[in-house]
Amino acid sequence: xxxxxxxxxxxxxxxxxxxxxxxxxxxxxxxxxxxxxxxxxxxxxxxxxxxxxxxxxxxxxxxxxxxxxxxxxxxxxxxxxxxxxxxxxxxxxxxxxxxxxxxxxxxxxxxxxxxxxxxxxxxxxxxxxxxxxxxxxxxxxxxxxxxxxxxxxxxxxxxxxxxxxxxxxxxxxxxxxxxxxxxxxxxxxxxxxxxxxxxxxxxxxxxxxxxxxxxxxxxxxxxxxxxxxxxxxxxxxxxxxxxxxxxxxxxxxxxxxxxxxxxxxxxxxxxxxxxxxxxxxxxxxxxxxxxxxxxxxxxxxxxxx
Amino acid sequence: xxxxxxxxxxxxxxxxxxxxxxxxxxxxxxxxxxxxxxxxxxxxxxxxxxxxxxxxxxxxxxxxxxxxxxxxxxxxxxxxxxxxxxxxxxxxxxxxxxxxxxxxxxxxxxxxxxxxxxxxxxxxxxxxxxxxxxxxxxxxxxxxxxxxxxxxxxxxxxxxxxxxxxxxxxxxxxxxxxxxxxxxxxxxxxxxxxxxxxxxxxxxxxxxxxxxxxxxxxxxxxxxxxxxxxxxxxxxxxxxxxxxxxxxxxxxxxxxxxxxxxxxxxxxxxxxxxxxxxxxxxxxxxxxxxxxxxxxxxxxxxxxxxxxxxxxxxxxxxxxxxxxxxxxxxxxxxxxxx
Lengths: 305, 338
Fold this sequence. Notes:
Structural class of chain B: alpha+beta
Helix content of chain A: 25-40%
Order of helices and strands of chain A: EEEHEEHEHHHEHEHEEHEHEEEHH
Largest sheet of chain B: 4 strands, antiparallel
Distance between the termini of chain B: 36 Å
Helix content of chain B: 55-70%
Strand content of chain B: 5-15%
Shape of chain A: elongated
Shape of chain B: elongated
Number of strands of chain A: 14
Largest interface: A-B, 43 and 36 residues
Number of strands of chain B: 4
Structural class of chain A: alpha/beta
Strand order of the largest sheet of chain A: 6-7-8-3-9-10
Strand content of chain A: 25-35%
Oligomer: heterodimer
Radius of gyration of chain A: 21 Å
Order of helices and strands of chain B: HHHHHHHHHEEEHHEH
Largest sheet of chain A: 6 strands, mixed
Number of helices of chain A: 11
Distance between the termini of chain A: 23 Å
């Protein structure tokens, strides 16, 4: 089952397209990292998926075919917006009571137990909580809804390293306990590298890459060889990043898998996720048409243009 | 496979689960807005206590002076004077009361959506299972109904408080200072102010500017109604008289015509009958002067019998404005204008 499916999804603000031609399908059960530079359209995509805004073009469904924003979709998705907003004038205990009344399957004992575990006082107004505590409170309210899809917009941005670790630990624990799917946007790559198993990369309003991390790492490699032979090789292969020195050239290429033959005179090295993401971001920011075309899908689920 | 997963969730018949019951919004609304609501109730209760205590004294003084016999006795004159003194303190309360609808609109209406927009919590509230459209309908209906009830009760109290002044001739029933604090008009103003506040909060998305805008709009509307609009709710009655309408009529204007029916300006009238200003034909040339010169004095006025029709017109118009603004607010939230 696809937890998220979009088809030709687009959102225009005035004359600017914040999101264009987004067609993708993300299967259930993944922790999907939505990465991209600021202004790439990550938040717009998330807001469309949780039903906060309406699409200008295209369609989107969640949880296996439920239209976004429908009652059935709202019931199964929990969203934590950027800067983790909570009702600052209410105490944590009352925030739990509000959440219980606004949702079908909200689990107050879980919420209270979890807040106690996190040392978040129930009687204190949320305005007096620290940024990390507020983020944890917002996450707890989302998890206590027992959602099937948890959507988090830049949850780590405002947190210190320890709070980031705690936050992600909570998310991962919920994933293993409840089997929920997570879609998380971020431009902090380092924290995601270890936990995300699905990657969606966006730049300038468009999805460039969408695949499991495993497949992406397997299908990309760095070829190191003589600069003199680089041009010929680059024409044959889909080059994402091309770094050349006097004698040696490093080409980040996209192939079909680890079984790809290595051209004679060249060495193949695996890439890390961070390397891969940065390469795609650089390629896009260079705005070379060739760079875009190299990101064309080689798998059906790969990339939407 | 898909269908199986869809049905796996308890309480989820088919693809469209049943909506959560409306009553769940009572606690939500109360928890989020109790500060403002308690504030309104506290202020109105304080004012009501004052009006209640003073009202009893005023009614007592009025009854005493009404039943005092013989009316010319020194004690009765003193009684009458003491009632007249009550009037001075009684009338001054009307001015601060005029601010109540604007304050309620600013402090209760404006924050309902402006605070959610300003702090970003609308992204939380609008993605909960209850659904954003039903969420805003429930909130506005609950708070609006509560305000209407409180305001209606308050209007009855104000009616009673000013009753002796109506009877004693200090006030006419249509007096602009109190007309909109009573009857149907007061709940109308409170509801309209609340709706203006809620709409401004959604449009402006910041609490303090939305509050300021609400106060300005409600204040401006109140002034416009009192100074210009209300006198035209029904066409004014016109009468020709030297002495003018009775004391309980709301006099809107006066003018003079000559023999041929042409309107005379005040300068011409003063030439013929020196001394009198408009509405005062003595002590200058005497009351017979104007008829002797063929001059007729005309008056336009609203009679006190129009008190309830006017209350109905003003209350109804404000209710219509309220419904319009609330509907616009709900529609904007529904169609995801945020």
